[in-house]
Amino acid sequence: MSVDLVVRNCTVVTPAGRSPNSGVAVEDGTIVAVGRSDRLPDADRVVDGEGNVLVPGIVDCHIHNREPGLEYKEDWESATRAAAAGGVTTVVGMPNTDPVIDRPDHLELKFERGEASAHVDFQSYVVVTSENLDRIPALDEAGALGYKIFLGSTVGDVPPPNDGEILEAMKRIRETGKRLGFHEENGEIIDHYTAQFKADGKTDPIDHSHSRPVIAEQEAVERMITFADETGAKIHMFHVSSGSAAEAVARGKARGVDVTAETTPHYLWFTEDVMRDVGNPARIQPPIRDADERDRLWEVGMDEGAIDCIATDHAPHTPEEKKVDDPFGNTWDAISGFVGLETEIPALLTFVDQGRLTLEEWVRRHAVRPAQVWGMYPQKGSLQVGTDADFTIVDPDREWTLEDRDDLHSKNCVTPFVGETFTGDAVATVVRGEFVYDDQEVVGESGYGTRVDVNDGD
Ligand code: DOR
Ligand code: ZN
């Protein structure tokens, strides 16, 4: 038997363990064998993995691809180009675009644009507001991956539904079998402190962080867990930034609520000191927390397991919007969010190098769990025979420094990771059997990426 592609001479890593001198065989974009290099079939193309690590394709379930409507910041083509270059095979776009993704026709437009230009496979969330509770079944029919509610004001100013509407949304979403995720910051708390800080003339980047205190996040997590306990909805906490919020998630899990959670590389890497060192370019919502919260996020979230998934919250804005030329200027004039797709694997591999995480745990949180939580497993996030041949090849030993943001592939590349040194990098990205990134080049075609089918998931 001869197949289309064999990648050999890798260490294959899944949550079940690692197999040296192994590889993957692919036919028609699908995995047909995983095993020892010398037992894989003949192939039209044989790639030597040179001893690198091969893992299921990395799934980033939280990016802001900005299309439709905000293409001056980023679009599907540029976001998925960055994904390919970052070793990410599937991305899920957030709904705070223009128009917001709150109706089936808006979702269809987002999917159409993705089909036309994406380099890697993709999906999209839809937003739930006071206005569209009646459309929840239609949005399910239209193929949404899952639902999102913004509990507090953030970029895009999507108004939060009230608590009654949230309870009702949970009941209706439960009927669809899909999961509801939150931007979990209590809006009344952050609005109060934002107004008070502005009135007090506090304008430093660190003031932005302190205007959105941990209690706003912790309270929102606890309230949504209480509502999910009442309604039976499956819920998810996006971008958990603090140990206190991770502890609240752990309590919810212990209580039997179906709550999953994600954190991002920046909350694990930095402390709020980054606001004093880098300033407005590091501004993000929720903000990067102090060392105690960061350390407890590691303990409770990563070591004890409250956090299911890693994602980036990749959120491109122009250098002008990010106040790059005035990093310590009035923070209320700067916007929140920065890119992450090309530094997420390097950051996580650096944690592996530091002995804070095993390769197996990295793969579980960055490929397997995101696909399971959002209903894309095992088509995505696995190396099972018969599923999409998505895999990421990484060099866990490559030491490098992100010297210049323009080395990245997004349209706008502001990130606090400029100047940081990593141990580990993506070497190649394979989507349905095609190399989309190889040897430091994005080699895939724009438009190759396609929408991922959704099942009921975990
Ligand atoms: O910092 C943020 N940026 N937080 C969000 O919630 C949204 C995001 C964006 O869209 O830029
Ligand atoms: Zn986000």
TrEMBL record:
Substrate binds at residues 64-66, 96, 317. The keyword Hydrolase applies. One of its GO terms (cellular component) is cytoplasm. One of its GO terms (biological process) is 'de novo' UMP biosynthetic process. Zn(2+) 2 binds at residues 148, 183, 239. Binds 2 Zn(2+) ions per subunit. Its EC number is 3.5.2.3. It catalyses: (S)-dihydroorotate + H2O = N-carbamoyl-L-aspartate + H(+). HAMAP family: PyrC_classI_A. This is Dihydroorotase. It comes from Natrialba asiatica (strain ATCC 700177 / DSM 12278 / JCM 9576 / FERM P-10747 / NBRC 102637 / 172P1).
